[in-house]
Structure prediction request, 73 residues.
Amino acid sequence: MFQSIGIPGLILILVIALIIFGPKKLPEIGRAFGRTLTEFKSATKGLVNDEDKDEGENPELTTEKKQDKSTVS
Prediction:
């Protein structure tokens, strides 16, 4: 998605952000953006883990067959 931006494009974006928001607000915006990404990552990880648990509970969705304990010695 961002392969065509390159280093000059990133520098230009940072300079424009510095002009718009100022040097005092830029670190706060960066921290807020980092927290947002962290929360999003943990939420998606939780959704994936929930889906894995749900698949294990439905036997018709899994291809593995469980062995009966009485037949295993």
User: Anything to note?
Assistant: The CA atoms of residues 59 and 65 lie 8 Å apart.
